[in-house]
Write a structure and sequence with these properties.
- This protein is α+β, with helices and mostly antiparallel strands.
- The chain has two domains: 2-158, 2-Layer Sandwich (Ribosomal Protein S5, domain 2); 163-304, GHMP kinase, C-terminal domain (Alpha-Beta Plaits, 2-Layer Sandwich).
- Helices cover 39% and strands 23% of the residues.
- A six-stranded mixed β-sheet has the order 8-7-9-6-1-16. The chain has a four-stranded antiparallel β-sheet with strand order 2-5-10-11.
- A hairpin with a 4-residue loop joins strand 3 and strand 4.
- The longest helix has 21 residues, at 193-213.
- The protein is globular, with a radius of gyration of 19 Å.
- Bound molecules: ligand 2P0.
- Ligand 2P0 is lined by residues 11, 14-16, 24, 30, 96, 98, 130-132, 179-180, 270-271.
């Protein structure tokens, strides 16, 4: 058995849309950060066929076929894989479980075959499972340029040690439509899609410079535009896609109020109703309290530091 673990990689500037669906290449450049407080752990055994279990439930291995075929090609094996994955946070709920899941899976499957891949090659393999997983191979801050085969490290976790992400989980329920299907619907039907793809590199460059300078206000501004514009493509799709819940709006208002009070707290969202707030470590108490007050009844917000990359765990 081979075991690997990875943290989800939260996009601060979003990958949303594919330049090449068959090769799973992103249409927009993205920048993400590893979330130390959340983890996926994947165990892999060589077997006669492929089977996948996530959090104790069997899932259809069809979604995994192109990825597993690529692993077999790379490792020169005909073997099947028995896969057992566990997330210590809700799966498929907009918390980037596919990023950590496929990063850990790429590491565990190749290790089970006795192959040793460098980070770039592991990232390219993980991308075939889920493009955000290409970023999750790396710790700290990582980028996945538009059309890129693999992600690249931008800055290690130690480069911005006081940065925190406060995560408000509105609901643990799986999202109504998966990211992959939503992206494809947006590409086919949303008149906002072309503008989104054209505009994304500018936000990306802004965010890369902000991370290099550790400038939270500049990063926050780029983050805010990125997720709003991503959702604009979805609202303009046919039929429209709307992941937000009433609690989501209450949380967004609470973060805006914090900023009005002078707290450097900047939110982002993914394909789901959850709200993640980037801030400095000295402000996490205020941010978590404001989020909890805005969403009574929800579980307590999770506070995360910047995490490491994928690692072998056995
Ligand atoms: C991201 N998301 O950059 C963006 C932001 C969601 C919103 O990557 O089709 O599961 O497997 O490559 O990686 C979610 O989509 O999509 C995602 P596929 P994925 O993190």
């Amino acid at each position: 058995m081979s075991v690997a673990a990875a943290h989800p990689n939260l996009a601060l500037v979003k990958y949303w849309g594919k330049a090449d669906a068959a090769r799973n290449l992103p249409a927009t450049p993205s920048l993400g950060v590893s979330l130390d407080a959340l983890s996926s752990r994947v165990e892999v055994w060589l077997d006669t066929g492929d089977s996948v279990e996530i959090d104790g439930r069997s899932v259809d291995p069809a979604r995994y076929r192109p990825f597993l075929a690529a692993v077999r090609r790379r490792c020169g094996t005909q073997s099947g894989f028995r896969i057992r994955a566990r997330n210590d946070f809700p799966s498929a709920a907009g918390l980037a479980s596919s990023s950590s899941g496929f990063a850990a899976l790429a590491s565990a499957c190749t290790a089970a075959c006795g192959a040793r891949l460098g980070d770039a090659e592991l990232s390219a393999l993980a991308r075939l499972g889920s493009a955000s997983a290409a970023r999750a191979v790396f710790g700290g801050f990582a980028v996945l340029p538009a059309g890129a085969e693999h992600a690249q490290p931008l800055a290690p976790a130690a480069a911005w040690p006081e940065l925190r992400v406060v995560i408000a989980v509105v609901t643990a329920a799986a999202k109504p439509i998966g990211s992959r299907e939503a992206m494809e619907r947006v590409r086919r039907t949303s008149p906002a899609y072309d503008g989104w793809v054209r505009d994304s590199p500018r936000l990306y460059e802004e965010a890369v410079a902000a991370v290099r300078d550790r400038d939270l206000t500049r990063l926050g501004g780029a983050m805010r535009k990125s997720y709003h514009r991503m959702f604009a493509t979805m609202l303009a799709a046919d039929p429209p896609i709307r992941y937000w819940l009433p609690e989501t709006l209450a949380l967004l208002a609470a973060v805006e109020e914090l900023r009005a009070q002078g707290v450097a707290a900047w939110e982002t969202m993914d394909a789901g109703p959850q709200v993640k707030v980037v801030c400095a470590d000295g402000d996490t108490g205020r941010v978590a309290a404001a989020l909890a007050a805005a969403c009574p009844g929800a579980r307590a917000p999770v506070i995360s530091a910047v995490g490491a990359g994928v690692r072998r765990a056995g």
